[in-house]
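Practice problem: predict the structure.
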Amino acid sequence: MNDKQVLKYIYELGCMKYVKRSGWWVARIKDPETIAEHSHRTSIIAYFLGLMERADAQKCAMIAMFHETSETRINDAHKIAVRYFDHKDAEEKATRDQVKVLPGIFKEKVSAFQEEWLSMESKEAIIAKDADYLECAIQAREYFDAGYKDTWDWIKNTKKRLKTESAKRLLSLAEKTDSNSWWEGLKNR
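Answer:
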C-alpha cells in the first residue's frame, strides 16, 4: 500500500473547501457555500433518502460523498457555463484521473462509487442524484429566507428533476417550511 498516494488524494479533496458553488453567483450571492459543504449535506440527505426508499442507505451516502470530487480539478460550473463546453466529459475524465493514483482497494472502492454515479443506473445512484438536487433546493430555500428571492427558481426547477417519492415529499415540505424553523422552541428551555 502506498500511504503517500492516499494522503495526496486526501489533500486534493481538501481543496473542495475552497471551490464555491458557482450557480449562486447568478442570483447575486457573493459568498456561496463550497462543494465540500454541499457534498457533506448531500451525503446525509442521500443516507436518509436511502432509508426512506428502502435502498442501501450507506451506499447512497457513499455515492453522494464522492459525487463532486472532480470539481477540485474542473471547478464547479453552473448551468449557463456548461452550455459552452462538454462538462460531463470533463467530469468523467477528471474523476478517472483522480483515482488512478490511489492504491488497490482505495482505487477499487472509490472508482466503484464514482462509476455508479456517472452511469446513473442503480437505485442508489438515482437516490444520490435526488439528494444532490434536494440539497441544492434546500440551500435555495435558505438563501430565499435570507432575502435572495431569485433562488426560488432553483426550487421550481428541482421539482421537475426529482425521481423518488421521498425526495418529492421533502421538497414539498421545504417549500412550505421556513428554514429557520428548526430552532423554534429551543430558546425557551
